[in-house]
Design brief:
GO molecular function: hydrolase activity, acting on ester bonds
Number of helices: 12
Shape: globular
Structural class: mainly alpha
Family: Belongs to the 'GDSL' lipolytic enzyme family.
Keywords: Signal
Protein name: GDSL esterase/lipase EXL3
Length: 281
């Protein structure tokens, strides 16, 4: 969920409409000055998650940030680069793939941990990641919790109850447990790092309400995605060659079976910004 949230947040802040990938081939000096994304789709706090789907681990994202700071200094000078990093807002969004695609689908972590122990494992890794980010100069850090994973279309299809594809309660409980632990850990980090501009952002509640009460937000469909059947297709499977799309994605909460639509993200950001993000700026 990171990339579209980044784009919507950047737009809400009046910076730009799209936050480019740091590894993009057409990155400009202005991109370096105004913000980039280090996200690798499918990764997670757990290093095994990135290994399973062959994407960059979050540790490598930190390494790219270090490299970025050197490039930024080359463009703006050391003093200006340090100021830009100090005043920037960092958005950390991970964990959903750890639960949905690692713990419940891959027969490894579920044999090593019960869900409570795995959540503790993830929380500790998340804490270490935030500490490392802080050591690299980040001071305004918004850390997003997990969404209601069991209500995501693909998880309804895989584990939901009956023909009605109800939300999976176990996955939702895991997300809620992680969110509670993460919020508690961030509260501790505020004290130990003496940094009140590290904050927890709850995305569970607003997305759950959009899914449960779609008409309240002007949506018609919240149990499947706009792409294809909406039950299983995700990412690259949503293209004009392999899948049809709905007539109007603005009527759908989800674009594919895992990610919300642009309109859903915009609603989420408009809700989250004054309640969480604005307080960190």
């Amino acid at each position: 969920m990171t990339l579209w949230l980044l784009a919507c947040a950047a737009s809400r802040l009046g910076l730009k409409e799209l936050v480019p990938a740091y590894l993009g081939t057409d990155l400009t000096d202005d991109d370096l000055l105004t913000g980039v994304s280090f996200a690798s789709a499918g990764t997670g706090y757990d290093p095994l998650t990135s290994t399973l789907v062959a994407v960059l681990p979050m540790e490598e994202e930190l390494n790219m940030f270090v490299e970025y700071k050197e490039k930024l200094a080359g463009v703006a000078g050391d003093a200006a680069a340090a100021r830009i990093v100090y005043e920037s807002l960092f958005l950390v969004c991970a964990g959903t793939d750890d639960i949905a695609n690692n713990y419940y689908l891959a027969p490894v972590r579920s044999l090593q941990y019960d869900i409570a122990a795995y959540v503790d494992f993830l929380t500790q890794i998340a804490s270490d990641f935030i500490k490392q980010l802080h050591r690299q100069g980040a001071r305004r850090i918004a850390v997003l919790g997990m969404p209601p994973i069991g209500c995501v279309p693909s998880q309804r299809s895989i584990a939901g109850g009956g023909l009605g594809r109800e939300c999976d309660a176990a996955r939702n409980r895991a997300a809620q447990l992680f969110n509670a632990k993460l919020e508690q850990e961030i509260s501790c980090l505020q004290k130990t790092l003496q940094c009140q501009s590290i904050g927890y952002v709850d995305i569970y509640g607003i997305l759950e309400d959009m899914i449960t009460n779609p008409s309240k937000y002007g949506f018609d469909v919240s149990t499947r995605g706009c792409c294809g059947t909406g039950d299983f297709e995700v990412s690259l499977l949503c293209n004009q060659l392999t899948a049809t799309t709905c007539a109007d994605d603005r009527k759908y909460v989800f674009w594919d079976s895992f990610h919300p639509t642009e309109r859903a993200y915009s609603i989420m950001v408009d809700y989250l910004y004054p309640r969480y993000v604005e307080k960190l700026l």
